[in-house]
Write a structure and sequence with these properties.
Blueprint lengths: L2 E9 L10 H16 L3 E6 L7 E6 L2 E6 L7 E10 L3 H13 L7 E7 L4
Antiparallel strand pairs: 1-5, 1-6, 2-5, 3-4
Length: 118
């Protein structure tokens, strides 16, 4: 079965400073348990803020490292998941269920991409 990488993009400037609410964390935990029991979830995690990150860039034959936060970015990767689904449609359905758990004040975009296999 194909594997899919889902990148969760958030507007870090408009996300609650205290992070997800306890209620949201509870809803996420229940859905992640369901996805895992269904044999779909292989790995998932949230990421620390961009202020803790660095970007490594190769441009013009030179490497550069820029420490966060990345103020020019409106959306940043806030988390990811790797799932194994029968097809892309199933991966999208699980992603839609995950996004719908969030309160209305969140702005989230998820990018679902199949992992290239040899």
């Amino acid at each position: 079965m194909p594997r899919f990488l889902t990148l969760i993009r958030i507007d870090e400037k408009n996300a609650p400073a205290e992070g997800p609410s306890p209620e949201l964390m509870d809803r996420m935990g229940k859905l992640l348990e369901e996805i895992t029991k269904a044999g779909v979830m292989l790995d998932t995690a949230g990421l620390t803020p961009t202020s803790d990150g660095s970007r490594v860039t190769w441009e013009g034959g030179q490497l550069s490292v820029t420490d966060g936060p990345f103020t020019e970015s409106k959306e940043v990767i806030g988390g990811y998941s790797i799932s194994q689904c029968k097809d892309k449609a199933e991966a999208i359905e699980w992603t839609k269920r995950f996004l719908a758990l969030h309160e209305d004040y969140w702005t989230i975009t998820a990018e679902v991409r199949q992992i290239a296999e040899d």
